[in-house]
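Sample 3 of the quickstart, ligand zinc ion:
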Amino acid sequence: MADSDSLPCHLCGHAHVEPLPEYAALRRVTSDCKPWAAGGWLGVCRACGGVQKRMDAAWRAEIERVYRDYTIYHQSGGTEQPVFSAATGQGKARSKRIVERLVQSGLARERGRLLDVGCGNGALLRACSRLLPGWSLAGTEINDKYKEEVEAISGVNVMQVGGAADVPGEFDFVTLIHVLEHVPSPAEFLASLKAKLVCGGNLMVEVPHYVDNPFDLLIVDHSTHFSAEVLRGIAVRGGYIPRVLATDWVAKELTLVAEPAAAKALAPVAGEDLFPRIRADLRKRVDWLAGIAQETRELAQGGRFGLFGTSIAAMWLFGELDGRVDFFVDEDPTRVGRTCFGKPVLSPQQAPAGSRVWMALPTALAEQIKVRLEPQCSNLEFHVPPALG
Ligand SMILES: [Zn+2]
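Result:
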């Protein structure tokens, strides 16, 4: 173990990444929402504060297994997961929300060229096609699984199987939506994309925010877990000047818009208190997750038990409970009526009377949904995760 223990930080190259041993006991989940075994490794860099996996041979072998049968949004038959308003229960596709905010910010002009790196099945490009109709669109992906689907989107002129460097020309926007958390060397990767931007062009990055959403730490194929200060540091190290760094474009996520710096910027100097502060904060979140696993195991034994949600948090808990769940509850109409790992997906109104329902969401979001649903579902017992404190 000594060799892999000494792997340097993949964000800044510093020699020492401090492990958090408690993490290994937690089950995990894949980014396409499938339960995964315990036994992972999580640490914090002493220099840059980056929370990360150890990308050793064992981790790479696991990732290969994850990607071998990767399915985007298997719970809804391929439809993008909506971002629900906790207050109303109304969903809006995440990509539509991001492009709307981009338009509102005034950063996207009437016409231009946009390249979406790691475009998946084209969710962002589809939103751009509707909301930025004058734009010429391009996408890249590592395989041709969704090539035809993406090429059929109005405005898409290039769908490249390969990397951004293989796409001809320069762009006004290069977007990375839920890509950077999978990339082995994020700062170098961002630096390489500068060549694809026109003068005055912008990079946009969307990543999960583990500080608001600790369930992100459980995702086996996320090599980096971002906080705002670490994302800012990576952007500066990659040669960019951040223009927007927001937590409110999409709930539980970080949005960065940055322009290339004229000269090579100096890497930001982390404050002396950064490492102990981030480590303490991370330990609190890992303990919180372990507490939830324990609490749901006890709750699930006392009669009919359901999990609210069919995404990351719910699928992680489904694994922690060894599948001993009677049903899932979801408000997403594309998921209700289906089954998920053999269990029915019910609307809140369909859940059997007297059931206990665990809200597999960050606490504040779960509270809001509970308050809204309780009057309509008085025969259900909703359970909310404890506050992080
Ligand atoms: Zn580091």
